Amino acid sequence: QTVLQGIILLPLRAICITFLLLLAWLVASIATFCQPGRGLLPLEGWRRRMIQTALSGLTRTAYFVMGFRVKVKGKVASLPEAPIFVAAPHSSFFDAIICALTGMPSIVSREENLSTPVFGTILSSLQPVAVSRQDPDSRKNTVAEITRRALSRGQWPQVI
């Protein structure tokens, strides 16, 4: 009976996750379509709310479909309390759970990740701080950008 459940549940879960991923891509595409100051200015208004609510909800739903039930104990720090949110060890796809639970903050990511199909569009909608592995000044530029966003008095979302 367990094998039969796996044979039925695995394809259903895969189809649901694929659908949710494509829906997240569509939401990210709409939110960033004709974005003024693409990547240089923070998303505002409906664009920012769309990313924070729709993308966060879709990510939570995808993890639920995968079989993860996440319960938060305590209160997530708000943007004025903590403009920079540190997550460690930052080594797996579970980092997305933290993003979903904290309202889809900006993240620090490799520049190459922005060009991957589907995921790159979703990642770009989070307005990441892109790190270039070829640029010798990238580390210094990344710290400067994180500092600039943290001191923006709420114009930019939290940075994780």
UniProtKB/TrEMBL annotation:
Compartments, as annotated in UniProt: Membrane
Record domain Phospholipid/glycerol acyltransferase: where: 69-156
Listed GO biological process terms: lipid metabolic process
Short name of one Pfam family: Acyltransferase
Chief localization: membrane
Keyword annotations of the record: Acyltransferase, Lipid metabolism, Membrane, Transferase, Transmembrane, Transmembrane helix
GO CC entries: endoplasmic reticulum; membrane
GO molecular function, one term: 1-acylglycerophosphocholine O-acyltransferase activity
TM region(s), chain numbering: 12-34
Family: Belongs to the 1-acyl-sn-glycerol-3-phosphate acyltransferase family.
PANTHER family xrefs: LYSOPHOSPHATIDYLCHOLINE ACYLTRANSFERASE 2, PHOSPHOLIPID ACYLTRANSFERASE
Protein name: PCAT2 acyltransferase
Highest classification ranks of the organism: Eukaryota, Metazoa, Chordata, Craniata, Vertebrata
